[in-house]
Design a protein that fits this description.
23% strand, 3 domains, 15 helices, two-stranded antiparallel sheet
């Protein structure tokens, strides 16, 4: 470790030469010599949550910044309450990367575990995936596989084949059955290794050990609720975008050594800090001649700091105790930013809606009607160069609206098509830690959650849905689409946003849709708006205080929603241009179907009520804006 420096904490940065030789220099000297300073402190946040000031230097506090840092440092839970002892916030999937001291503790803990062995990893790799069979269906499935095995053996015997492989080679018609039997056999063995690994890593507790009295007991070999929760936590820890089953990405990570997975987590956290320090957004997703600067700069930083390997990162954490990350900043030499970068860039967003279906998602019998999409919606950030050419800097998969459940004024849920507006718009306002004000049409079941309070589960208002927070409807940041007002009229806000989201399956699954908004994973939305705000003329409005309250009855309980702020606002002037392309309209219906549509199998007392025929006027958004009722994004 470098000797104690004479430079004050807030003015020094660490330079590492050859991966291990450390010395301190003044931050001004580092910047003058062409270094990029990367913040390794535990109170680091992305630009949108960094401390901002008025032109006069007055601090504009961000309410959610404290919670964000508490989540990254495993100190607070999603409601801002102290995290119970021993619990961890695995939130990379939701856009909140662990702090460096949390990662250090993870390396220390996992380095002492003996969860990985070559033989077990080979068994997991051989299975590749483990088919989901519900606990209730296990006995029937086992009986079916046993019956297939007997059929195969009988057929082999009658064919006078020595082995099943020889028999199937003679008669390939039996190959699918043999493949299924062998796969299930491999899965049984692999399941034992998965259980061992998840238990060793602290996610799946043995009956009676490390388990709360209210926690369900895992049944060996069964994909039950404890197993599902263990897999979900594992996926959250290692940023695996899969549903909570043992699919390929999850199984691959289960077969790797713990420290290899931890090093991947470290590099992801490093990437976000390097991207922020270098003020870039290009990640290779745009294709063409635009470089993947996010990976290139991260790789260079890791190599210069001696952090490109597991061993180097372990050594770094041994040299630096957790207390160092209260003030640690490092300096790295990165290539010059592309020539098109400037303080003020001509940026715009284009959203291609991809393949769009307006047809009902079910037929006359109520059976689901397939609506395949070959082209999925994409959001692209463009830069116009000095020659007027539009150059894409990044291009990410997003969402558009579709058929969603909606609670009508009669109290019943119906289907309603909630599409995404087409045509030119602008983003004038960007809000960090945004809050969604649920309209009366929101199903009440989504506004209540059960939370463990002490030793008892209690039903509370679901602020996870409302925000601010990583799981909220608008995620960690949102850009508000509006149609600019003309002739002195205010902007028109139809409730469409491009925002962060924790619902990653809605973005990456074949059947994912929103309620009209364009979702991005939280960390990508943060990158997008941080870059835009740093390269556009903007002013920091700060906290949007409000005093919104609402009571509602759910079953026999009364709940009260209180919203003290709509979030932390930035306003761009001029606003950012947005264009939403129509996409390809598939199916029979070429226009959206308006009104409520009864759900198949639901008994209603009468016909669906009509839609409200006039928009509401609500506070928020751009002051004075006239809007429709705010919909679930």
């Amino acid at each position: 470790m470098a000797p104690a420096p004479s430079i004050p904490d807030d003015r020094r940065v660490l330079v590492i030469e050859g991966g291990t030789a450390e010395h301190w220099i003044d931050v001004a000297t580092a910047e003058a010599e062409g270094y990029t300073v990367v913040d390794f402190t535990d109170d680091w946040t992305p630009f949108i949550f960094a401390e901002q000031h008025t032109p006069a230097g007055e601090l504009l506090p961000n309410r959610y910044r404290r919670v964000l840092m508490g989540l990254a440092n495993d100190r607070l839970d999603e409601d801002g309450a102290p995290l119970p002892a021993g619990q961890k916030n695995y939130l990379e999937l939701y856009g909140i990367f662990p702090s460096l001291s949390v990662l250090r503790a993870r390396f220390v803990e996992d380095g002492a575990r003996t969860c990985h062995d070559v033989a077990g990893a080979a068994v997991i790799a051989a299975a590749e995936t483990i088919s989901y069979v519900s606990p209730a269906g296990m006995r029937a499935d086992d009986a079916r596989i046993a019956r297939l095995r007997r059929e195969l053996e009988d057929a082999r015997h009658h064919a006078h084949a020595k082995t099943l492989a020889e028999f199937v080679e003679r008669d390939p018609r039996w190959a699918p059955k043999l493949k299924l039997v062998e796969k299930r056999a491999a899965e049984k063995v692999a399941m034992t290794e998965v259980e061992r690994r998840l238990g060793c890593e602290g996610f799946l507790h043995a009956p009676g050990r490390g388990r709360a009295k209210t926690e369900a007991v895992h049944q060996t070999g069964v994909y039950d609720d404890p197993m599902r929760l263990a897999v979900r936590q594992f996926q959250q820890k290692h940023m695996i975008y899969e549903s909570n089953y043992l699919r390929r990405g999850t199984m691959t990570a289960l077969g790797r050594p713990l420290l290899a997975n931890d090093h991947a987590s470290f590099l992801r956290a490093l990437r976000e800090r390097v991207v922020s320090a270098a003020d870039i957004v290009e990640d290779g997703s745009a294709g063409g001649n635009i470089k993947n600067l996010a990976d290139e700069y991260t790789t260079l930083a890791a190599e210069q700091l001696g952090l490109a390997t597991v061993e180097g990162t372990v050594a770094f954490f041994h040299r630096h105790p957790a207390t160092d990350f209260a003030h640690l900043r490092v300096a790295v030499k990165l290539p010059p930013r592309p020539s098109y970068h400037s303080a003020q860039m001509d940026l715009s967003i284009v959203i291609d809606r991809g393949d769009v279906w307006y047809d009902l998602p079910f037929d006359d019998t109520g059976a689901p009607r397939p609506q395949p999409r070959k082209k999925y919606p994409q959001l692209s950030l463009y830069m116009r160069d000095g020659h007027g050419q539009q150059i894409p800097l990044c291009r990410w998969r997003t969402t558009v609206g579709g058929w969603r459940a909606d609670q009508a004024p009669d109290g019943y849920e119906y289907y309603r098509y909630k599409g995404s507006d087409v045509g030119p718009r602008v983003i004038r306002q960007v809000v960090a830690g945004p809050v969604w004000v649920a309209p009366e049409s929101t199903p009440l079941r989504t506004l209540v959650k059960t939370k463990q309070v002490g030793t008892h589960p209690e039903r509370v208002v679901n602020y996870d849905e409302l925000g601010p927070g990583f799981m909220s409807a608008y995620g960690l940041i949102a850009g508000y689409f509006v149609t600019p007002g003309v002739n002195g009229r205010p902007d028109f806000d139809n409730g469409i946003r491009a925002h962060g989201s924790s619902e990653y399956l809605s973005m990456y699954s074949a059947n994912g849709f929103s309620h009209g908004c364009h979702r991005l994973p939280n960390h990508l939305a943060i990158r997008l708006y941080s870059f835009i705000l740093r390269h556009r003329q903007m002013r920091v409005v700060g906290d949007q205080a409000t005093d919104i309250a609402r009571q509602f009855l759910r079953d026999d309980d009364v709940f009260e929603i209180r919203i003290p702020s709509r979030g932390y606002a930035y306003v761009m002037d001029p606003p950012l241009p947005v264009n939403v392309l129509e996409g390809e309209i598939e199916g029979v219906a070429k226009e959206p179907i308006l009104g409520y549509v009864p759900k198949p199998g639901v008994h209603y007392p009468g016909p669906p009520p009509p839609l409200e025929d006039s928009p509401e006027v609500r506070a928020g958004g751009v002051p004075g804006a006239k809007t429709e009722p705010e919909e679930r994004p």
